[in-house]
Structure formats: structure tokens, C-alpha cells
Amino acid sequence: MTVLAFVSEAEVRAAIPQVARHLEGGGLLAHPTETIYGLGSRPREQDVSLLARLKGRPQAKPFLLLVSSRSMAERYGLVFTSCASTLARRFWPGPLTLVLAGGKGKLPEALRGPEAGIAVRWTSHRGMMTLIGAIETPITSTSANRPGEATAPGADAIVEAFRGAVDDATLLVLDGGMLGSLPPSTVVDCTGARPRLVREGAIPFSELHATAESLTR
Fold first, then answer.
1. 32 closest CA partner among 131, 127, 137
2. What Cα–Cα distance (Å) separates residue 194 from each residue in 28, 62, 106, 214?
3. What is the residue range of 156's domain?
4. 198: Cβ–Cβ under 8 A, 6 or more apart, which residues?
């Protein structure tokens, strides 16, 4: 089956074994988040490369990681500065993506951005948090669309947009219902001496700045 219901707790639990097998076999995943639908994979070089080809995204533009806890991010070698820790305590789990140093030898270098960090978010989507915790590995993520196109709002639109990958069973779709046109996560670069706002999204800059006064745009 290429589309799995993923709304109720029972549906999430039922989907986990099939998703785990699919990802372990190198397959890709379309999934809901607390903001928009995403496309993802396990954090392995060959899987990330396959995801980039499906997305039609330049290899130099990295994806982010979804985790189910701060400890999972630290287990993969990501480093929390004092400010990153402050922001994580205030806004995680939630729609805040932090770009962190570290991860050498534990995460694909293809995930590393121009600032030499890796973007990570502790997702607040209950189903994805449960799934990621159950398989005990982060899932890479990028918006469920091709460059220049609108993000797919639901499973039907994802199937239509990526029909070839769905038909050949490369892409497994988790149907979390319609998400609408929600703003993406806010992104903060915490690799330097001072945190820097990369993208303002679901969490406004003013709210971030009130938590971490050294934050700059």
C-alpha cells in the first residue's frame, strides 16, 4: 500500500512497522508535520541523494532533520550552544528549526548547509514524534513540492505531484489529513557566536528575540 492513514493514535501505531521497513529499505516518505507536508528519508547519504532527485533540488541545498527529542539530536553529535539551549527549552517541540554545529561522522555531509551546520527540529506533530521515537532515528525533511510549486496540502495532492515515485513504491505517503496553508517553521542559525534569524515563519522574530536577546536578523 502506498498511502497509509496517519491521523488517529491507532493509525499511527499501525503504520509504524510498514514505515520502518520502507525506510530501512531505502524508500522515501511523504509525511505531515506541525506546519506543512514534507518529503523525507533516513539520514543516509544514498537516501538523501534519492530524496534530492525526487524533489528536483540542487545537491548543495540541504534538508533538515526531524527528531523526537533533544537527546536524539545530541546522540547524532549536534551541539547546542547556550542560546540554542534557551530557544529549544522555550519552543521545542514546535515549529522552530535550529541550525547546529556538529554531526561529523554521524550524519550525511549532504545535510550540512553553507553555514557548516545542520538544521534540526523537534517536531510537535504527535504522529511524527511517535514514529520517529519508535524507529529511533531522525527523518530528513523538505517541503512536499517541486521547486517553484505550491506545497501539497494533503495526501491526494502529493500522490498527483509525485505519481511516478508512488507507483513504483519509492514513495510511501502518510495521510495526516488536510493541513491548509500554514507558515513553515522559523529557522535560526546557532552555529556562530550570536544566533541569526534565517527565516521568519510560524514563530515571529519578536517572540524569539524576547527569549534570546542576542538574536539578530
1. 127
2. 35, 22, 25, 6
3. 3-211
4. 99, 187, 188, 189
Q: Look at residue 155 and tell me if it is in a domain.
A: yes
Q: Is residue 217 part of a domain?
A: no
Can you tell me which residue has the cell 523526537?
Answer: 68
Torsion sign across C-alpha atoms 104, 134, 183, 27: positive
Residue 66 lies in a domain: yes
The number of distinct structural domains making up the chain is 1
Owner of C-alpha cell 547519504: 45
CATH number of the domain that residue 134 is part of: 3.90.870.10
Report whether 131 contacts 4 (CB < 8 A): no
Distance CA 164, CA 19 (A): 19
Angstrom distance (rounded) from CA 84 to CA 101 = 11
Q: Which pLDDT tens digit goes with each residue over 127-186?
A: 999 999 999 999 999 999 988 888 889 999 999 999 999 999 999 999 999 987 778 899
Distance, in Å, from the CA atom of 20 to the CA atom of 212, rounded to the nearest integer, reads 37
Per residue in 79-100, pLDDT tens? Answer: 999 999 999 999 999 999 999 9
The DSSP H or E segment spanning 176 is none
